[in-house]
Automatic annotation (TrEMBL):
One of its GO terms (molecular function) is transferase activity. The keyword Transferase applies. Residues 20-151 form the Glycosyltransferase 2-like domain. This is Glycosyl transferase. The lineage of its organism: Bacteria, Pseudomonadati, Pseudomonadota, Gammaproteobacteria, Lysobacterales. Keywords: Cell membrane, Glycosyltransferase, Lipopolysaccharide biosynthesis, Membrane, Transferase, Transmembrane, Transmembrane helix. It comes from Cognatilysobacter xinjiangensis. The chain crosses the membrane at residues 242-263, 275-296. PANTHER family: UNDECAPRENYL-PHOSPHATE 4-DEOXY-4-FORMAMIDO-L-ARABINOSE TRANSFERASE, UNDECAPRENYL-PHOSPHATE 4-DEOXY-4-FORMAMIDO-L-ARABINOSE TRANSFERASE-RELATED.
Length: 321
């Protein structure tokens, strides 16, 4: 007898929670209380039963003290304090792993993304999408930040064809799928890369982008470049392929150079020994070899971190029901 398609069993889902909202917190002491209030009002107005999960990523400010008061006052708030700073994506994974809702949403703690837009993302997901991203037509970031972001997205799409290009940190994900993300144990975490691996059934909703409520962005140029490099090396073999083609190109160039010198010697066009050109060639080829070895070293280092089985995150304290 055909009983129809098999249903996924999710032992962690709470039928009394429609949406679990995960908020990674890093130096957000001045904004998270307003964020909590706006999220609660927006989700209550949409008749969505919810829990808010704040994950404090050891930013060094008073965020944990604010969260302690929040958990004691509001029963729908849960808080997790990590043992050290693991990064935004690792903190997000920590919260997702503990989420119990039918849908799992994520949002930043700086109020640049409007909490009032989350119900619209949930409604879009209920049309049958596994992932829904809140995307911006324009951003209030600095020009250099917007340019590097767009350049990075274009390079990621070229290097990782399976990546959902219109990704953002404002997401709504099917809870059963979201809770599978914890199975990815790479120390170089990228939530949207994991989601792209699990599903291509995604949609987007355009949301406004507001100015940051307090302080400055925690992402410096160095952090952004390091994040981009980690994505390339973790989710793409493009650097290895580029190293292969670079090696082939330099080998072919060296062969043609040698052939040209040989012909020149036979025809008398070259009469003097080319010490300078020889040294330039050796230096160039040595640099190419070191570059290729460096690329291989980056991949080997990631394999070493993976086999060491180090945890992606470690929760030190937890508050809330």
């Amino acid at each position: 007898m055909n009983h129809g398609p098999a249903q996924r069993i999710d032992h962690y889902r709470d039928p009394d929670i429609d949406v679990s909202v995960v908020i990674p917190v890093y130096r957000g002491a001045r904004s998270i209380d307003a964020l909590r209030d706006r999220l609660h009002v927006a989700l209550e107005s949409a008749a969505l039963r919810h829990e808010l999960i704040f994950v404090e990523d050891c930013g060094g400010d008073d965020s944990w003290q604010v969260l302690e008061v929040m958990c004691a006052t509001h029963g729908y708030v849960r808080a997790i304090k990590l043992s050290r700073n693991f990064g935004q994506h690792a903190a997000t994974l920590c919260g997702i792993a503990r989420a119990r809702g039918r849908w799992v949403a994520t949002i930043d703690d700086d109020l640049e993304q409007p909490p009032e837009a989350l119900p619209e993302l949930v409604r879009k997901a209920e049309e049958g999408f596994t992932v829904v991203y809140g995307v911006n037509q324009s951003r209030s970031h600095a020009v250099w930040r917007n340019l590097t972001s767009e350049l990075g997205r274009a390079l990621f799409k070229f290097a990782i064809p399976t990546l959902n290009r219109e990704y953002s940190s404002m997401r709504v994900v099917d809870g059963t799928i979201a809770r599978q993300l914890e199975r990815f144990q790479s120390p170089f975490t990228f939530v949207d890369g994991y989601l792209s691996w699990l599903t291509h059934n995604y949609a987007t909703v355009v949301v406004p982008h507001h100015d940051r409520a307090h302080g400055r962005s925690n992402y410096s140029v160095r952090k952004l470049l390091a994040h981009m490099m980690n994505i390339f090396l973790t989710f793409s073999d493009l650097p290895l392929r580029a190293a292969t083609w670079l090696g082939l190109a330099t080998a072919a160039g060296g062969a043609l150079w040698g052939l040209a010198i040989l012909i020149g010697r036979l025809t008398g066009a070259v009469t003097a020994s080319g010490y300078a050109s020889m040294m330039a060639g050796i230096t160039f080829l040595g640099g190419v070899q070191l570059l290729i070895l460096g690329i291989f070293g980056q991949y080997l280092g990631r394999i070493n971190f993976k086999t060491a089985s180090m945890p992606v995150f470690l929760a030190e304290k937890e508050l809330g029901s």
